[in-house]
Amino acid sequence: GVATAITDTRVALFRGATQLDANDDWQTHARSAEITASTFAPGSPRESAVLMTLAPGAYTAVVNGAGAATNGVALVEVYELP
Question: Whole-structure pTM over 0.70, yes or no?
Answer without folding.
Answer: yes
